TrEMBL record:
Domain Replication protein A 70 kDa DNA-binding subunit B/D first OB fold: from-to ranges: 14-83
Domain Replication protein A OB: 114-195
Pfam family, one: DUF223
Superkingdom field: Eukaryota
Disordered, as annotated region: 406-489
Name of the protein described by the UniProt record: Replication factor A C-terminal domain-containing protein
């Protein structure tokens, strides 16, 4: 599922499109117009099966069709959609791809006609680049894929795809020494400086190391090859308009709270502030599926992952920190998910749950020690802003704060690399504040206002049909959940 915007800045959605696949593995695009969006947008969920009745079918020349099918289903005001029980959907494939070989991407009859799916080994991740143009600021990131013939393909990710990719990659690959076989689905083929590249769009999804025959066969063919992924740091010269991530778009807390979310959606800002409190009213970790990192759903027999359609998923704890930051102008809440929190704490959520307690509202010492520490937070406007109507922010990276007079230096470097000390805090050893609010942890600063560096972060992504697209976020957690990026289309 993905939404289509009718404006250049994506401020208003005018339609939603779906990729549907039947039990025979045949796919078709479906379109829901703006007037019918409210009827279906909250009912339809990626990865689930439905019986759809009373719709129109039209043969249209679609420039950006997700599947090689000339027919399109159009929902109407009379369309009826009924969700099918699990037993009826067991034979319907969860994924569907139409892979195109790297060498075939430059075929003239493919340029600008239809979306493509590509599979390859992830080899390089370039830093985010921000530029300004006639249509306002833009954000992009390049990554590189290699096929089994050692051909390289540059991929350009735009907007939210650019900002979320690194986090999802890090979460997905932490502690794993294996090649990253990735599928980019719904990509647009373009020519840039005489070379073929693929660019992301509203329909783009990615999948890392998923368990399907095409990925398993590709992985088996990589035996003996390096599994390293080169994560390039920003150096200020990566491209025209690239900026120092730790200082660009610097805002005070007051400045952040005055932003228009529509004008600044997808833009990153930095804020030099201290962690004042950690709100644990909704817990500091969630139960996630080990495959997709989405939140799992409790059942009478245990848990199930509605994203993977796994009735007995392996559960992995993942961070979801709701942090109150403060500077001299005010305070606001920001979310730290998955990899961002993980590299600040320098411990996985699973380790802390195992060592301390599975109680989701009882903060371990490693998290309590973050309170009172000063960092430079790189934040963006969270998608929850548009769902709740309240301005909220999500941390994309965390950098060491510059030293000030009377404050211990947190060390040099652009991002935090050292773990915060677990024993330097004072006050209660529990998670209760001085005013008795058991949902917040508020630990006094040490006499010297200690500040410790933080780090960056991580997440989770023949022949032709294999079936269903989606880069999704935990269903039982906020949309941004463990990926640090969240935004499922």
């Amino acid at each position: 599922m993905w939404k289509i915007s009718g404006t250049s800045k994506g401020r208003a959605f005018t339609a939603m499109e779906l990729l549907l696949v039947d039990e025979e593995g045949v796919g078709i695009t479906a379109s829901i117009g703006q007037k019918d969006l409210t009827k279906f947008v909250d009912f339809l969920v990626e990865g689930r099966c439905y019986m759809i009745k009373k719709f129109q079918v039209s043969r249209q020349a679609r420039k950006l069709n997700a599947v090689p099918n000339s027919q399109t289903i159009f929902f109407t005001s009379w369309t009826v959609v009924e969700e099918l029980p699990t037993e009826f959907s067991a034979n319907v494939p969860l994924y569907m791809f139409n892979f195109v070989d790297f060498e075939d991407l430059d075929r003239k009859d493919r340029k600008g006609h239809g979306l493509v799916d590509v599979i390859g080994q992830l080899t390089v991740i370039h830093p985010v680049v921000q530029t300004s143009g006639l249509n306002g600021p833009s954000i992009r990131r390049s990554v590189e894929l290699r096929d089994l013939s050692d051909r390289l393909l540059p991929i350009t990710l735009w907007g939210e795809h650019a900002t979320s990719f690194e986090d999802e990659f890090l979460i997905e690959t932490i502690s794993k020494d294996e090649p990253v076989v990735i599928i980019f689905a719904g990509m647009q083929v373009k020519t840039y400086l005489g070379s073929i590249t693929c660019g992301s769009g509203s329909a783009t999804k990615w999948y890392m190391n998923i368990d399907i025959p095409e990925v398993n066969a590709f992985r088996a063919s990589l035996q003996g090859r390096s599994s390293e992924v080169l994560l390039l740091p920003g150096d200020g010269d990566a491209a025209a308009g690239a900026t120092d991530e730790a200082t660009s778009n610097r805002k005070t807390v007051s400045d952040l709270l005055s932003l228009d979310p529509h004008d600044n959606n997808g833009v990153r800002f930095t804020c030099d502030a201290k962690i004042k409190e950690i709100d644990v009213s909704n817990g500091w970790w969630y139960k996630g599926c080990s495959k997709c990192k989405r939140g799992v759903k409790a059942t009478l027999e245990g848990f199930e992952c509605t994203n993977c359609d796994d009735m007995k998923p392996m559960i992995v704890p993942s961070y979801k920190l709701n942090v109150v930051i403060e500077d001299i102008t005010g305070r606001t809440k920001i979310f730290l998910f998955g990899g961002v929190a993980e590299q600040v704490v320098r411990r996985t959520a699973a380790e802390l749950v195992e060592e301390s307690s599975s109680n989701q509202i009882l903060l371990p010492a490693s998290l309590r020690s973050l309170v009172g520490r000063r960092y430079v937070f790189q934040v963006g406007i969270s998608e929850q802003t548009f769902r709740t109507g309240q301005l909220c922010f999500q941390a994309r990276k965390v950098f060491a704060a510059p030293a000030v007079a009377g404050e211990r230096s947190s060390g040099a470097g652009s991002s935090v690399q050292d773990p915060p000390g677990g024993s330097s805090t004072t006050g209660n050893s529990g998670n209760q504040t001085g005013d008795g609010d058991s949902r917040l942890t508020n630990v006094p600063l040490d006499p010297e206002g200690a500040s410790t560096p933080p780090p960056e972060h991580h997440t989770s992504t023949a022949s032709k049909p294999s079936s269903a697209k989606g880069k999704e976020v935990p269903s039982g957690a906020p949309e941004e959940s463990g990926y640090v990026a969240l935004s499922s289309m």
